[in-house]
Amino acid sequence: MMWRRVLGLVLNKSKSKLKSQNLNPLLSSTGAFDRIPFDVFFQILIFLGPKEAARVSAVCKSWKFVVSDNWLWILFLHNSQEESWENIDFSESCLRSGYPLLLQSSLSDQSISLPYMHIYSQRAQHRGAVLIDGGSGYSKFGWSKDSSPSGYSATFKEFGDLESPMYSRLRHFFATIYDRMQRKPSTQPVVVAFPICHYYDTESSKAARRQLEEAICRVLFDMNVPAVCSINQAVLALYAARRTSGIVVNIGFRVTSVVPILQGKVMHQVGIEVVGQGALTLTVFLKELMGRKNMHVESLYTVRTLKENLCYIASDYESELSIDTTASYELTGEGQFTLSEERFQTGEILFQPRMGGLRMMSLHQAVALCMDHCQAAKETEENDRWFKTVVLAGGTACLPGLPERLRKELCGLVSAATFEDIERSSSYLFGSSIRGLATPFFGLAKGVQPLRFWS
């Protein structure tokens, strides 16, 4: 049924386009082929597939006109790519312009004239890129054509603080990842994502961010990587949610940052709110709660696994205390663990930090403050809604109930008109948005000197 709908849309759009231009693509010296109805000819092209359809375009100008129709190649993209059409459309319409991104008012005009035959060819020829997410707690790495990482590493434990741009440390980090992926650095370009650090809009913070980016590029180019795209995690999280503007709540390893982003640019001048608790804080707090019930576990990795599989965010903390929430999880080699109120008390410190002995803003207070700053800044007169969507990112953002609870708490602090939606980002790194980001950039890198791209 979906196939018929898409095909019908393609045929109607293509025929209306040809009529509007007063052209009959089959009026040419092609003999008996002139009598083939347009609908049949179009379906023959679909049946032939993209490679043969491209060859058909060389027969004559009229056939070339039909074959180059955008809707034919949109249909090929629908059918031959692993990712969804929504992701392809977003990446090609919004990210292809490069950085800085085009304003929203320009995107609709650009998307109409995109040469999808050329886009299909470029995506098919793109060999892919190595993707490295250098998180401060855990790093992920893999291949741009894969939907999930191929490996993980405990960054801080194994490599130290990567936010400190020491050449030897960064070199060891990247060399280890390439070794584990069994890839030579010189064969593919690389997309590198690093956590937001040096948050403020001061000259010293700007210099520190620039120093880190330059250190990353210097190491990778010394390893003969052909091209580097360096981009921060918050922007990637927004792209993975198919957005270019919004507020990203990045629950990182050590801290949580609330980051305003406009057209792919982190708005340091508006202000990034930083809350001094992250995934590690929740893991340590769960370990403490378990210790109170004589469940003593030495390994934080074990506690983290229990947190990821048993914990959730309560919609109403007081009401949840009166409910039996007991649940168990079995870890291979370590036995079965049973938790009750610890399951929702762990994440509650995001909204009630004092429960964990922390003196700091709650998560919803930080988000509301960021929204107030965005509203006061008035960065663009054309669009005063750019900051009204909140995107949750990071492993802890996957805790069940978090978006609903944050929405509830925000309603008590800001007006309903101040924000529109709260959603989770699918991933920092892996997905077609990143492939769409890498394809136009790295298509430029063939046979030329090393390139760098900043965000």
Automatic annotation (TrEMBL):
Q: Which residues form the F-box domain?
A: 30-76
List the taxonomic lineage.
Eukaryota, Viridiplantae, Streptophyta, Embryophyta, Tracheophyta
Task: Return the InterPro entries for the record.
Answer: Actin (IPR004000), ATPase_NBD (IPR043129), F-box-like_dom_sf (IPR036047), F-box_dom (IPR001810)
Stated name of the protein: F-box domain-containing protein
Matching entries from Pfam families are given as: Actin, F-box-like
SMART domains recorded for this chain?
A: ACTIN, FBOX
Q: Which PANTHER family match?
A: ACTIN (PTHR11937)
- Write down the species: Papaver nudicaule (Iceland poppy)
**Entry similarity comment:** Belongs to the actin family.
Q: Which domain of life is it from?
A: Eukaryota
